[in-house]
Design brief:
With about 160 residues, this protein is mostly helical. It has seven helices and no strands. α1 packs antiparallel against α5.
Length: about 160
């Protein structure tokens, strides 16, 4: 049964991580003002003209709460990264697991905290920090919840 649970966990984490990244990307494309880092990436991959075509007047971000436009994408990224790393190493007892798990808070917190002194580009925000922590925490806990529910379901049968 562990093989079946592992495959199920892999599918669920892959779908959820991909969905979170896609949703965060769509928020950047349609709702955020010109974000140089994201738009430069889109142009470098040859998608710049498509993104530029889709952006103007696609949706009025003023209709949504500011946190959903400015903080939610970071939380979705943190969720996806945390979920992926935790899902990959779930059930492993290898010491390298802890090194990879340590990258989650380092990246999530570091990215935001390094914006405060201007070491990396961006605007420091406490709300972004809170959303990042919540997203990473959810991604960290989710594999355990999935495995617990699949174990419970397998016992019922």
């Amino acid at each position: 049964m562990p093989g079946t649970q592992g495959r199920y966990l892999f599918r669920v984490t892959t779908i959820l991580s991909g969905t979170a990244i896609l949703l965060g990307g769509l928020i950047y494309i349609f709702l955020r003002p010109g974000e140089p880092l994201f738009l430069d990436w889109a142009r470098a991959t040859g998608l710049g003209s498509l993104v530029d075509h889709l952006r103007p007047g696609s949706f009025d971000p003023a209709l949504l709460p500011a946190w959903s436009v400015y903080s939610l994408p970071g939380a979705l990224w943190a969720f996806a990264y945390s979920l992926t790393i935790t899902g990959i190493w779930s059930g492993s007892h290898h010491p390298v697991k802890f090194l990879w798990l340590a990258t989650i808070p380092v990246l999530v917190l570091g990215f935001e905290l390094l914006q405060a002194p201007g070491i990396i580009p961006g605007t420091f925000s406490i709300l972004d920090l809170v959303f990042g922590i919540l997203g990473a925490g959810a991604g960290f806990l989710f594999p355990a919840i999935i495995l617990k529910s699949t174990r419970h379901e397998s016992r019922k049968q």
